[in-house]
Design the sequence.
């Protein structure tokens, strides 16, 4: 495939993973984690595993975000440490 | 027990989008044999569309679409469809989940295999949808019901 596109997606993955760990607001962390999942779904689709990419987009970006949101509803929104 | 969203834009857009997500999920389940997708992805999309309504419209509105009591029984029903198709193939004289020997009259083995995959994926889709919704409802239930 086009290596420039893959390079951009790899950089996006690394940046979103670091930001999801670094950010203090846990709601933003969940959203950035969904961005990470979408990036890896793009990467799977480029590498030829369309089925895996589809599952990653549905489950990783959609369902786990909603589950984390439901868990966050019972805790505080700001990270303490 | 999820609070209703106060934003009118979020409420209206998600209420408008949910039927289209469900239609796409039915497409993914029905075209699972020869395109990417299948029972699991379609069921997860169906569950996600109802969870979107749970988050934005609130409990009272979204229970018109899917009642909370239906979550666990429907997930068992999906597993039952999967197992029943397998046992039906055994009744027809083949092995477990051998779709070619399903006991339906007047169909060639190729048509029987296509129908069997569709039935099994419908079962998987119902099971995944109901399980996802049941997990979310149990997570957001504040007090355990006695």
Sequence:
């Amino acid at each position: 495939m086009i290596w420039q596109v893959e390079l951009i997606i790899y950089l996006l993955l690394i940046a979103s993973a670091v930001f999801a760990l670094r950010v203090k607001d846990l709601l933003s962390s969940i959203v950035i984690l969904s961005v990470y999942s979408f990036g890896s779904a793009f990467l799977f689709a480029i590498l030829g595993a369309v089925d895996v990419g589809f599952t990653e987009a549905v489950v990783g970006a959609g369902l786990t975000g909603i589950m984390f949101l439901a868990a966050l509803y019972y805790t505080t929104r700001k990270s303490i440490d | 027990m999820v609070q209703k969203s106060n934003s009118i834009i979020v409420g209206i857009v998600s209420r408008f989008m949910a039927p289209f997500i469900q239609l796409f999920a039915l497409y993914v389940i029905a075209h699972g044999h020869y395109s990417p997708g299948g029972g699991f992805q379609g069921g997860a999309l169906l569950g996600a569309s109802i969870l979107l309504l749970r988050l934005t419209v609130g409990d009272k509105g979204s229970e018109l679409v899917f009642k909370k009591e239906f979550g666990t029984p429907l997930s068992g029903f999906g597993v039952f469809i999967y197992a029943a198709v397998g046992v039906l193939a055994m009744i027809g004289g083949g092995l477990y989940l051998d779709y070619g020997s399903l006991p339906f009259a007047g169909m060639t083995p190729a048509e029987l295999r296509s129908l069997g995959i569709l039935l099994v994926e419908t079962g998987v889709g119902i099971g995944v949808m109901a399980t996802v919704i049941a997990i979310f409802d149990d997570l957001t239930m504040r007090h355990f019901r006695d």
Q: What stands out?
A: Residues 2 and 58 of chain B are 6 Å apart (CA to CA). Residues 8-139 of chain B form one domain. The mean pLDDT of chain B is 87. Chain B touches chain A through 18 residues (CB under 8 Å).
